[in-house]
Amino acid sequence: xxxxxxxxxxxxxxxxxxxxxxxxxxxxxxxTEDIVSIDMSDIKSMATFCSKQIFGKLYLELGxxxxxxxxxxxxxxxxxxxIIRIGIESVL
Length: 92
Description:
The protein is of the alpha/beta class. It has helices at 16-30, 48-62, 64-70, 78-89; strands at 2-5, 12-13, 36-39, 45-46, 71-74. It has a 3-stranded parallel beta sheet with strand order 1-3-5. A two-stranded parallel ribbon has the order 2-4.
């Protein structure tokens, strides 16, 4: 398992460039790691379109079971968890 921290994008992930960087970093790690742990302890909020760009795309690429088995989200606030869920649901 490899862990990444999103603190360099704190406190709010709100633009397409940051979303693309995060997605690429996670995708790159998934080529060599079974599980990627994402530390969101410094993230207070996230734009819904960024959630769709990152987590929605990963969900589509990996499929439901692989997404939940291979992506671990740590230290996310309830608000961020809700936004991630909305991002995933919006691509289905």
